[in-house]
Design brief:
Blueprint: H1 23-33, H2 40-48, E1 58-59, E2 62-63, H3 69-83, H4 95-109, E3 117-122, E4 132-133, H5 141-145, H6 151-154, E5 164-169, H7 176-190
Antiparallel strand pairs: 1-2, 3-4, 3-5
Helix pairs in contact: 1-3, 3-4, 4-7
């Protein structure tokens, strides 16, 4: 979803509803409009594991804002809000409708590029056995990057004999981690409902 740049002048001061900082609020609002407000905690808990990753997902050598996890999830939910009729105040979804909506949303979430991200700390040209690998199902991104070296202490080291952060994206679908995410998100929604 292409979003126009915000006005920098007062009263906007560079902020608008579609910026990165406002994405979690739009996610909550979208889930409310979809009748899935009780799924908010599960979805934001999962999404929070990727917080900060957007700075490391590059298109060339610059971070790619189109890969920002919070904005990507917001955009998926806004597409679903546009697709489904808005619920009336106090109206609840039937359990089968709820499960269908969540299933379709999960399908779309798993197509997002950031979901296929993998990362590790490791030394170039060294065995993979010594790498510290990020597990997005268990570890928050911000916690993981703290495991890396103290760059202030190593900036004078010659060559590549220190750990590097390597971030990759797997273009395949239905990878084991994507299947685990599907199960986790669907499972966390199963106990809730109308």
């Amino acid at each position: 979803m292409e979003i126009p740049a915000p006005f920098q002048e007062i009263p906007y001061c560079g902020r608008y509803e579609m910026d990165h900082a406002h994405a979690p609020y739009m996610i909550v609002r979208s889930l409310l409009n979809l009748g899935l407000a009780d799924w908010t905690v599960a979805l934001l808990h999962w999404l929070g594991r990727y917080d900060g990753l957007e700075e490391h997902l590059e298109d060339g050598f610059m971070p790619d804002p189109r890969l920002d996890p919070a904005c990507c999830v917001r955009d998926v939910l806004l597409e679903h809000v546009a697709r489904w009729p808005k619920l009336e105040l106090g109206e609840c979804l039937a359990l089968n409708q709820r499960q269908e909506r969540i299933g379709l949303i999960i399908d779309d979430l798993l197509k997002l590029e950031f979901v296929a991200s993998a990362a590790y700390w490791g030394r170039p040209h060294k065995p993979a056995s010594g790498r510290v690998v990020w597990n997005s199902l268990q570890d928050d991104w911000l916690w993981f990057i703290q495991l890396g070296p103290d760059f202030a202490a190593i900036r004078d080291i010659e060559g590549d004999d220190y750990e590097h952060l390597v971030v990759t994206r797997d273009k395949k679908t239905d990878t084991p981690i994507q299947m685990q995410i599907r199960h986790m998100l669907a499972g966390e929604s199963a106990g809730s409902g109308a």
